[in-house]
Design brief:
16 strands; eight-stranded mixed sheet; elongated; 2 domains; Rossmann fold; 328 residues; alpha/beta; 9 helices; binds asparagine
């Protein structure tokens, strides 16, 4: 029988109604009791009790340390977590726990576990099944799909179909035959090295017509060390009147990396196609290619945390580290 660990951190899945609204209250053991018997040997640890809106870099580090600590004692780990920031946590854990030796599966729900028609039982069962059978890696299991964590985005606020695997197919789907493995995460194996050094003074800016690039300098003056700009379409930026392109060049000369991603959820940014992208590229903008914004910002935080300079970060973003990006 596979030996699995449930690390519970709160979220809707563990929430109960209160006068203040939904608040996480149930323990991991409560979740398991409501779920009923499963064909695994499961240990439980309550490590946090938070709505995921309150999960921040301090919690990412703590969660990564817990996973690292227990990974050698279990065949797989399930992390129950609120859905709102789950894709960020999954992305960051992918960078902090590279070459993890077991499957680690994040899950949660849109409706609390104690509600009769909740999606929580399905999602938890799926997460345990994935933790017992997937290859090593960091995954997110939700609504009958298992996805590579660093490719996920929360795309719906209330529907059970809350997450998508963006730009790559899911790893597995539930069918009447069980868990159907669709794609291989293609991750390298080795010995996991925990690395939780990250730079948190970064920013993610969504461009809109009229955005004043002066605000980027205000960020830099306040200690911002790197910026992801969600630019237009394939990665274009304005240069008439409000000169984003020149601002990006100036920031990069100051040693502040600027990553250009796309506001479009699907497909990639390609700065070489249009003049408005090429000019930014000439100024040193780094393309996020087909990465999610969640992956781009967490990759940037992790890279800066390793002490990389702008050139090293450019090289780092030209590499696929944990399945987060398609190169070529
Ligand atoms: N469905 C959820 O879990 C949402 C909740 N606010 C959370 O992220 O913790």
């Amino acid at each position: 029988m596979k030996k699995l660990l449930l690390l519970s951190t709160g979220g809707t899945i563990a929430s109960r109604a209160s006068n203040e609204g939904l608040v996480p209250q149930d323990s991991g053991q409560d979740l398991l009791s409501m779920l009923g018997p499963l064909p695994y040997q499961i240990d439980v640890r309550d490590i946090l009790q938070l709505d995921s809106s309150n999960i921040q870099p301090e919690e990412w580090k703590f969660i990564a340390e817990q996973i690292y600590k227990y990974r050698t004692k279990y065949d797989g780990i399930v992390l129950s977590h609120g859905t709102d920031t789950m894709a960020y946590t999954a992305s960051m854990l992918s960078f902090m726990l590279q070459k993890i030796e077991i499957p680690v599966v994040l899950t949660g729900s849109q409706v609390p576990m104690d509600v009769v028609l909740s999606d929580a039982p399905h999602n938890l069962r799926l997460a345990f099944s994935a933790a017992a059978s997937c290859k090593p890696g960091i995954y997110l299991a939700f609504d009958r799909k298992v996805m590579l964590g660093c490719r996920t985005v929360k795309v719906r606020t209330t529907n059970f179909n809350a997450f998508e695997s963006v730009n790559v197919p899911p790893i597995a789907r539930v069918t009447s035959d069980g868990l159907d493995m669709i794609s291989d995460p293609g991750l390298g194996t080795g010995k996991c090295e925990l690395n939780t050094n990250i730079e948190t003074h970064v920013s993610l800016v969504k461009l809109f017509p009229g955005f004043d690039p002066v605000l980027l300098f205000a960020m830099a003056d306040s200690g911002c060390r790197g910026i992801v700009v969600e630019a237009y379409g394939l990665g274009g930026m304005n240069y008439i009147r409000r000169n984003m392109v020149a601002a990006v060049g100036k920031l990069i000369k100051q040693g502040i990396p600027v990553i250009a991603s796309s506001q479009c959820l699907y497909e990639r940014s390609d700065l070489t196609r249009y003049e408005v992208g090429r000019l930014a590229l000439l100024e040193g903008a780094i393309s996020a290619r087909d990465m999610t914004s969640e992956s781009a910002i967490t990759k940037l935080m992790w890279a800066l945390g390793q002490g990389m300079n702008v050139t090293e970060i450019q090289n780092f973003f030209d590499q696929n580290i944990v399945g987060e990006v398609t190169i070529n």
